[in-house]
Fold this sequence. Notes:
The complex is a heterotrimer. Chain A is of the alpha/beta class. Chain A has eleven helices and ten strands. A ten-stranded mixed β-sheet of chain A has the order 3-2-4-5-1-6-10-9-7-8, with helices on both faces. Chain C has helices at residues 2-15, 41-55, 65-68, 72-82. Chains A and B meet through α4, α5, β3, α6 and α7 of A and α3, α4, α5, β3 and α6 of B.
Amino acid sequence: xxxRVLVTGIGVVSAIGLNVHETLASILSGxxxxxxxxxxxxxxxxxxxxxxxxxxxxELAAMAGFQSCEGMTRTTLLGMIAAREAVSHANLSxxxxxxxxxxxxxxxxxxCKTELVYHxxxxxxxxxxxxxxxxxxxxxxxIADYLxxxxxxxxxxxxCSSSANAIMFGTRLIKSGILDRAIxxxxxxxxxxxxxGFHTLMILDTQLSRPFDDQRAGLNLGEGAGYLVLESExxxxxxxxxxxxxxxxxxxxxxxxxxxxxxxxGAQMAMKNAIDAAGLTIQDIDYVNLHGTGTQxxxxxxxxxxxxxxxxxxxxxxxxxxxxxxxLGASGGIEAVLSILALQHQLVFxxxxxxxxxxxxxxxxxxxxxxxxxxxxxLSNSFGFGGNNSSLIFSSVNDxx
Amino acid sequence: xEIYIRGIGLVSPQPTTRKDYFLEEVKEYYDNxxxxxxxxxxxxxxxxASRRMSRILRLGVIASKICLVDSGVSMPDGxxxxxxxxxxxxxxxxxxxxxxxxxxxLTPTPFIQxxxxxxxxxxxxxxxxxxxxxxxxxxxxxxxxxxIDGCMLIEEGNAKNVMVGGYEENTENQIxxxxxxxxxxxxxxxxxxxxxSTSPGTIAGEGIGFYMLSRHKGExxxxxxxxxxxxxxxxxxxxxxxxxxxFLARNNMKKDSIDVVLYGLNGDSEGDKIYHDLKKDxxxxxxxxxxxxxxxxxxxxxxxxxxxxxxxxxxxxVPSIIQLETANPQSLNHVLIYNHWQDKNHSLYLVxxx
Amino acid sequence: xxxxxxxxxxxxxxxxxxxxxxxxxxxxxxxxxxxxLGLDSIDALELIVLLEKNYGIKIDDPKxxxxxxxxxxxxxxxxxxxRL
Lengths: 401, 354, 84
């Protein structure tokens, strides 16, 4: 039988909480993290709300145990905080006989800093210390050094599906025997670059986003980091794993650089691949954490994919992006943490801001917080630019079926 | 499980897209920046369809088409890419637009094409390939991680053919900025003198290469990709020797069986020390070769190294232009590639004759 | 109007990188999207920026663009009606 990969630790930071405990409390009280931008210096701040973490880089650095944020990007700091929580939660031992890797994801990388100092890069030498913090590998290596991880360390960037792919890759590396343990997830900070970029695509809502609503007008960006600690079952003796990474699937929509196909073929294939890989059937899925960005295009595509896959009777589904914003490269990791919390506590999280069902769909998301809902298997979707579609299935470990 | 390289498409600062070319003559560069030689775009690209594409995206599409034809595979079971810096020109374009116009009148195209997975995504759209797709973005081991993923996909039984690519692009601004942190040589040298240089810094390179990994040999197959490994560590010589020994042991390979070692020497006096140490001691007696004088240094320069290794094994020749010491190769069966990025990102490849 | 139409054709060729197309080859009344010039949704976004940058007219809803950008003629009419 194939090796089981278990989740032994989770860590998260976003606009709704600086750790797992705060995050869950916010969701239970229906508290969204989307509001007016106050820290990010941008001409768009009065136009576009976002889920901004209301702490400066120096404050984040202090949380991570540094005197100042000098020489570090916001992406790195967020990643350190969440990854450290996951590792601490997992009580990960420093065992040199075990192969431990770090697979981290980011789309922004150091751009949050580069955009502030790029002019200096071109005209003087005052900010040279940030030249090396620009690329995606920087935050990963800083997190690796911070956690004391060496060996297999790498970074993924597939836009919005990045950290879901990191979780998938880490799982596969353990199943193949290359690694015994892996810290997996992603981190992204808000930046003018991405805010303006999405604005040129005209898919940002000037109001709070309304995933799956017929009147939806776009997404709200967010920032944060989410990490899991994965361990092979063999090295987990004496631990109480949170769940198993039971299945995963990736498929390419192969349609357009930014738009999803109208029939949602890529999304459907990703979900089906995950369910098949898990050895489950569609009836076994109890809850779907949607990608659900609130854009006209994604939600229609994802909605059609749900209907095609599950027929007229899908499991409960909701998007948690109205809480956390769309955290881009970190979204797969953050939403994996949220999915695992849902699984642990047998909760269905509400899809905030939903009023009117989409004309094109028969199904509607869950708008209430539901407690004591039997959840054995939860499916989490992350769909990225370029049609990179990934789905993960987390399952309770008591369920051996 | 044997994994073969059954097709290659490499666009680089040498004429590597020419059929049967193997460094018979090489292009010389004099100003420390090597740029990819561009094939005739019209041969490969429809002008209307490619009108928005950046230079590296066009070259990526071309390299992928060459690889597909070379391999005889029309629909890969996966498309995986690796790149350290990603789509530099489009990122710069959008960023400069943002800063110069103070966030006004920005156009979407450069933003859309700035994500690291643009080339992999574009190729999947071009082929209508719904299969596995991913992109790695970790500095000097981006391409290697993509190869590891590709091999794993085949070994898992989920794929027969996986197209794996690596790329980096140079822009003037990028080169200028990296110069400020001492990346490049202060003095202008001929690229052909790079490996003998004893001053700090290296020279800039770029390129894009696609490799079709496969369970089956195919007509043009030349080599087996026996194994690839990455290591993130501030490694000294002893650490590295241990890592290499473990790598060889994992592949049931004795050091004696290695015929050629291909080093990632880049002309930087500090960074090259480890290669010289290995050459002198651990790999004494082997055929020592280098490649970065021909392609320049970048996060993904090993796309060129893999091509060199594959060609050596296919032709059973070691061109004098890559020999570090005069050698008289007998039969070549195994090539070991060792490269590092700033002593932290290390990669090892074992490439073997079919 | 004639001058505006000529100017628009040149601007569109430039902004959308239609390297192989001359202004004379763009029919004023012909559809720009789908079958006509074969423009797509990303081109529509580029044209929205063109309208704002060169003519001071802001389109906030991309769906509105479909009617405005039907052809060079409809674009010219819209500009004449709305420009500052």
